[in-house]
Amino acid sequence: MSDKTPFYITTPIFYPNGKLHIGNAYPTVVCDVFARLARILGRPTFFLTGADENSLKVEKAAKEKGLEVMDFLNAQASETQQLFARLHIAYDRYIRTTDTVHHHLGVQEMWKRLEKSGDIYEGIYEGLYCVGCESFKTEKDLVDGKCPLHDAEPEKVKEKNYFFKLSKYTSKIIQAIESGELYIAPEARKNEILTVLREGLDDISFSRPYHGQPNAIVVPGDDSQAVYVWGDALTNYISALGFGGSDDSLMKRFWPEAVHVIGKDILRFHAAIWPGMLMSAGLSLPQKILVTGLMQSGGKKMSKTLGNVIDPVEMVDIVGAEGLRFYFTHDVPLLDDGEVSKELIVASYNAHLANGIGNLCNRLLKMMITYDARFDPAEARESLYWKEVEQKADQFLNTTDLTGYTSYIWKELASIDVWIQETEPFKLFKTDPEKAQELVSSMMEKFYILTNFAEPVLPYSAPKIIDCIEERKMPDAPMFMKIG
Question: Does the domain made of 7-292 have the CATH classification 3.40.50.620?
Fold first, then answer.
């Protein structure tokens, strides 16, 4: 019997200061596939993605385009949601940190709880600030005086801030990670954050001066200060569930059954600052933090400077959304760096979709219709094989092994091809049509079951294939046309 506990999965919320790239599309697709799989398995599911709109980078990008901040943000949100629609992303909520209904109340409640715990105090911050990272830096964080991530010198800042007593929670966070209460994968990232924690955490700046920025949230009780980006952005994971609002039913249902999928560049914020905030607020820690690797092309990190950045819209135009979804979930290891190129994506599409499930679909449907082979879809859903695949799927979801899941489904699909080659039903039909009918019926039933479980990866094509099987008809056109 499959697990029926609630399943709550989140992407990082992305800075909308420019077009989303393939590195943003990747975790969103990953989370969508996990969420769809959880729904198939009957688990109460909530999938959250969105935009981190409280950012100096956003303000600068809007100014460069000659737009008001909110006009710029609205346009960016619309463009992002259009891209997600093309990728067949079925989120339950798209959170925007300028959302006064779902987000601002949660941030203000979080601030009040930290304050009530005695963990907010006023001070003067003087130091180095990287606009690209939206964080303060120490000299040891820099390489040749520059932020290594953005190759830019940080700005010197001196201003009144409120601080959060993060240092107070260092030992508790270490204990939570070491005990497995807060699960971090892969092991290398767990060890990386433990090294940072054992060196000791400093208290952190938690506000910045408020000058009427429309994308900022005013500190409760002090309208001269705005909540700093991490106090604001990280709270999205619970504000989206109604924390701080009048209806917290989603919060009660889904928290802390959370799986945060993040990139390794924001590990410290999610595995140190966020747990500290939750502990101070008297809230449970999330269940898992999964840290993805980097998108690489030609063995190098993607960058505009190197000219190896891949546009997800361009790839969807070439292989379709499902070609990209398949590559992400079959060929890119979730917890390690992944090699991505147009050539690799096209080759994978041809091998596993056009020549794989697409070709198999046409062969089986043609035999089913020609030989009048039949099976009962309702009985298939109650079969031992359905239960076997369901149990496997449940295991892959619980271990968050996405490439393992996709590889398993496609290996099972490939086994039907082998079955056809070994038994040659088209020859058998000439000598024993009844036995050929039974054989094709069995193949069709297996294919039907596997197609149902391929739906998280192929949310557009799998239902079409299922309709063709149930209505006993050929598709109007090949599901996946070979490229090249």
Answer: yes
